[in-house]
Structure formats: C-alpha cells, structure tokens
Write a structure and sequence with these properties.
alpha+beta, single chain, 341 residues, Double Stranded RNA Binding Domain, 8-stranded mixed sheet
Length: 341
C-alpha cells in the first residue's frame, strides 16, 4: 500500500497546482486516477482496521464470540483476495468502464441462442457487481437468440475484469432447435473494449466519417421504428462500421455510436502495435475464429473449461447465471509476469 499512498500524495499535490487545468485532457485523466487511487487506499486502510479489530476480538478468548469472529475472518479473507487481485490492474484503462459486444458465429440458430445466453450471463455478472449496464445496439435472430449485441458496462474496474472474456466461446449441447435432438457445437465471439472518455487517445475527424440514419429494428416499440432514430457511422480510412439503434433519440444513438467507434479504433491501433512487438519477439500467432478460449459443455457431461488457464467447473448453471469470478481471477493471475504488450 506504500506505493499507492505515495502516488496519492503526488496526485493530490498535482491537482492543487495553479496550472493544473491548463491542459484539460491531462487534468481529467489525473483526476480520474486520483479518484481510483484514493478509493484503493481507503479500502486498504479499512481492511487494516478490520484486521486489527479482529485480532483484539480473538485475544478476548470468549467462546460466545467465536462464531462472529469466524464470519469476520472469512469476510476479511475474501476482501484480501479481491484487493490483491485488483492490485495487478496496471493498464491505464483497467479501472474504467467497458464496452462489451457479442457476435454469434458458426452454428446457425444454436449460435444465435448461445449469443443470447452469453448476453444474459454477462448482464447477471454485472448486476451482481453493481455495475450499470446499457444495451446500445442489438440485432435479433430471425428464429431465436441474437446475431449481435453491444452493451456498455459502467463501474469501477469493469474493463480490468472483462478483458479476460475477450475471444471465442464454444457451446456443446443437445440442440433444442433440432427435431432429432442431436448434439450441436456452436460458437460466439466476445469483444471487450475500454470506454474512452474523450478524443485524447483517438481523434475522429468529421471529414472521415460517413453518417447515415435508418429506422430502428431493435427494442423500443413501434414509435421508435416510425422515425429514423438509428445511426450508422462508417469510418472511411479504416472501413469500420458501427451502428446504434436502441435509444429513442437520434442524438443519443449518434453519441453511443461514436463512443463504440472510438473504442474500436483504439483497439485496432493497440492490436497493430502488439503484432509488431510480437513479430519482433518471434512469438506472434494469428488468432483464428476456431481457437476458442472457453468451452461450455452441457452434453454428454457438464463442464465449463477455460483453455488458457485450465480452470474448470462442473457448475455450468451457476456460470451461465453470471458466476464468472473464478475464471476471471485465474486468467488475470496467469497474466502476471508475462511480457507487457
């Protein structure tokens, strides 16, 4: 905690300097870091006080306090584990919000249904953590499920946790859409991007944007579909296309679309940089769609397994209901000590 306390003192001194707001972008970034570091220091200080109180309680040697002490020690252990895990969030975006997209892949209707299962799983996970979520774009399947969905997840360290979910997910089960009830394998792609607060990292020039409107086909009712509230933005230099249609306001859809476009352009820049570094190291391997990071097997046995860490559980229902912390922690801890990109 000494390093965090030192950084807190530095940021507080910086924010008090008379020329602090001369560069608004840098000032806002510093204020966000100040808020994050202050929260982290406060959490550690609270934990240390709880440990001291528990130690005093243990020294009383009163048998009637034993159950209360055991509950408190278990709670302290959970808090230590959480804070220890979050101490490895070193990327500047780890403490911020995230944009999560799910795209159905190979597998037809089963894949679209799987994409909807994943959407429900992540929404439940976010709800358990107290995160604010908003579905800003969704395209439903013709028969069932969804083809694609984009969700903003707002909460402390949302990106830090969710970045462990990026990649291809695979489902094996007896298909409810097969009249012969045969076993099917389907895939979905999960994309996780940091939500950028401003144009400081990615500049969007109006001359490079092709913006069009259309009638929404997503959630919102008939009054949404009567007007062209949905937005499609094409970034001409990269060819990236982003759509947003879930808000009743065209202005809000435009803002959300720009937010997603900015995040995807940032991701493209990062991927290019990482490939160049990996090529210099000689360890770059192209990511293919079939190289799944996690498998959800519901038949002939029950198992969810992460292929990057070998973390697994037979509690498939719990995982699909949002209990993902074990998988996230295993991945994040496995990343410790790996070369930074």
């Amino acid at each position: 905690m000494a390093a965090q306390e030192k950084r807190l003192a530095e940021l507080e001194a910086l924010s008090a300097s008379p020329d602090f707001w001369n560069n608004p972008d840098k000032a806002r970034a510093a204020m966000q870091e100040l808020s994050d570091v202050r929260t982290m220091v406060a959490e550690w200080q609270t934990l240390l006080r709880r440990i001291a109180d528990a130690r005093e309680l243990a020294e009383i040697e009163d048998e009637s306090l034993r159950e209360e002490l055991e509950v408190e020690l278990a709670s302290i252990g959970d808090e230590v584990r959480r804070l220890d895990l979050e101490s490895i969030f070193n990327d500047k975006h780890d403490h911020g919000n995230a944009i999560l997209s799910i795209h159905s892949g190979a597998g037809g209707v089963d894949a679209q249904d799987f994409a909807e299962m994943l959407m429900r799983m992540y929404l439940r996970w976010a709800d358990d953590r107290g995160y604010k979520t908003e579905v800003i774009d969704q395209t439903n399947g013709e028969e069932a499920g969804i083809k694609t969905v984009t969700i903003t997840m707002s909460g402390r360290q949302a990106f830090g946790y969710l970045k462990s979910e990026k990649g291809v997910h695979r489902l094996v089960r007896l298909s409810p859409f097969d009249s012969n009830h045969r076993r099917h394998t389907s895939f979905a792609q999960v994309e996780v991007l940091p939500q950028l607060d401003d144009d400081a990292e990615v500049e969007l020039k109006p001359s490079e944007l092709e913006i069009s409107t259309y009638k929404s086909s997503g959630a919102g009712g008939q009054n949404v579909q009567k007007n062209e509230t949905a937005i499609r933005i094409r970034h001409i230099p990269s060819g990236l296309v982003v759509t947003c249609q879930n808000e009743r306001s065209q202005t809000q859809n435009r803002e959300n679309a720009l937010k997603v476009l900015r995040a995807r352009l940032f991701e493209m820049q990062e991927e290019k940089r990482q490939k160049e570094i990996a090529a210099l190291r000689g360890d770059y391997v192209k990511a293919e769609f079939g190289s799944q990071i996690r498998s959800y097997v519901l038949h002939p046995y029950q198992m969810v397994k992460d292929h990057r860490t070998d973390h697994e559980t037979s509690q498939t229902s719990a995982v699909l209901n949002g209990q993902l912390d074990g998988f996230m922690e295993a991945y994040l801890r496995a990343r410790v000590g790996q070369p930074s990109n």
